[in-house]
Each structure stands twice: as structure tokens, then as C-alpha cells.
Design brief:
Blueprint (H helix, E strand, L loop, with lengths): L3 E2 L12 E2 H6 L6 H14 L1 H10 L11 H10 L4 H13 L5 H6 L2 H6 L4 H11 L5 H4 L4 H9 L6 H11 L11 H10 L8 H8 L6 H16 L6
Antiparallel strand pairs: 1-2
Helix pairs in contact: 2-3, 3-14, 4-8, 4-11, 10-11, 12-14
Length: 232
């Protein structure tokens, strides 16, 4: 059993105990209190975030289970609306096609009947056969997580970063390729045009060690400004 340590946050509140492995990968978001702490830090660091937080209210935790289902759900959500992704996922659950063995053994027509495109059927099958070590990913550095996941067809950097953020709880992971984050940053920072992925990644460096909470805040701001969700 790994020894646990306790460290203090910037305002001297005691953080939850963390294993040494967690210290190596950075802060892990476990509860709403973690998100609130990150939001407070961002608001104190960047006045525009304080303005956004006043409009959004408390930010959602957005923690999800890790493993095969989480990645399959991420594949399902690629390039479709939140509502469409939810509908497809419900059909997959009803058909009991959300486990690796079930997906591997399913016919293309069965998966297509749930709403998956032919391309996503190929991606789902590739994920089912990838044999990823999900337990090892929990303790792996961000770039290792991204490298392992993007080696699977259909999983790009955005999907890998979303998985690290929500399923692994990485507090300092950002997803600068996300279009809703581009638009939210443009509005909040009053930019003439949307920042591209490279520019947004550079902007986010100033939000470390809470880039994962900055993403939550920008998505929440997008929802308030646009009246629709930017991420599922």
C-alpha cells in the first residue's frame, strides 16, 4: 500500500490526502471542493475569470468513471451534438453494447442500428481490441496518457485530454483543440477572432496548475453566453 501525504493549498486549507503516485501526475480533482478551490484561484489570478464565475455560479465536478466505457462514450460524442451523443449512448446501453467483449463480438449492423457511423464502428472495434491498461493510466504522466490513447484509431488528442480531465481527474490538463473553448475564450477575453489551438494552449499556460478547472469555467461561460452546452 502506498504511503499517503498531505499538503496545503495556497490559502492554507488542507487538501485531501494523495498518494506519492498522484503527486507525480499532479493534483487530482475528486470532489466539488477541489473544483471550487481551483475556481477561486483562477478568479484571484485573472479578473476575467472572476467576471465569468459571477455569471456561471459554482462549476460542475464533471468526474466520470475511467476505462473502456468512458473512451467509447468519448468516441460516440465526437463531431455530434450533446443531445445526439446522449441518444446514441442510450441505444448502446439498451442493446448492452458498451463493454469491450460485447462491442468486439457485435456485428456492424448492430452498432449502426444504435446510431454509430461506419467510421465510429471501426473506432469502437479498434478500442475493444486495444487492451489498454486502464489502471496504469491512472498513474501515468499526461503525455504518456495522451500517447497511449492516441495510438488507438479514432482517439485523437482532444479525446485523450478529455479523458485525462474527466475520467482521471487531472486538474492541470486542458483541451485547447475544443471549439467551444475557442469561442468562450474569444468572448471572455474580447479577442477579435477565435484563438486557434496553438494560441489557446499558450494562453492556458498562465492558468496552471488549474487548467482543467479553467476549461470547466470556459465551458460554463459558453453555456451561459450561448444557451447550449459546449461539452457533454
Amino acid at each position: 500500500m502506498q504511503a499517503k501525504i498531505v499538503e496545503k493549498s495556497y490559502d492554507n486549507r488542507i487538501l485531501e490526502c494523495k498518494t506519492h503516485a498522484e503527486c507525480e501526475v499532479g493534483r487530482i480533482i475528486r470532489t466539488a471542493d477541489c473544483v471550487a478551490e481551483g475556481a477561486a484561484w483562477l478568479a484571484a489570478t485573472e479578473p476575467r475569470f472572476a467576471t465569468a464565475l459571477a455569471q456561471t455560479g459554482p462549476l460542475p465536478l464533471r468526474r466520470r468513471k475511467d476505462g473502456f466505457e468512458a473512451l467509447l462514450a468519448a468516441i460516440v460524442s465526437q463531431q455530434v451534438s450533446v443531445a445526439a451523443a446522449d441518444s446514441i449512448w442510450r441505444k448502446l446501453k439498451t442493446a448492452r453494447l458498451t463493454g469491450p467483449r460485447k462491442v468486439a463480438g457485435a456485428g456492424e449492423d448492430d452498432l449502426r442500428a444504435c446510431g454509430l457511423s461506419r467510421q465510429k464502428v471501426r473506432y469502437a472495434k479498434a478500442l475493444a481490441g486495444a487492451r489498454l491498461d486502464y489502471a496504469a493510466l491512472r498513474e501515468a504522466p499526461e503525455e504518456t496518457v495522451v500517447a497511449e490513447l492516441t495510438a488507438v484509431p479514432g482517439i485523437g488528442r482532444w479525446t485523450a485530454e478529455i479523458y485525462a480531465m474527466f475520467s482521471l481527474g487531472r486538474a492541470d490538463v486542458f483541451a485547447p483543440g475544443d471549439l467551444a473553448l475557442h469561442e468562450a475564450a474569444r468572448m471572455l477575453f474580447e479577442l477579435e477572432e477565435r484563438p486557434n489551438e496553438k494560441v489557446l494552449r499558450q494562453m492556458a499556460e498562465a492558468w496552471s496548475p488549474w487548467r482543467g478547472v479553467a476549461a470547466r469555467l470556459l465551458w460554463a461561460y459558453f453555456r451561459v453566453a450561448k444557451g447550449r452546452e459546449g461539452v457533454g
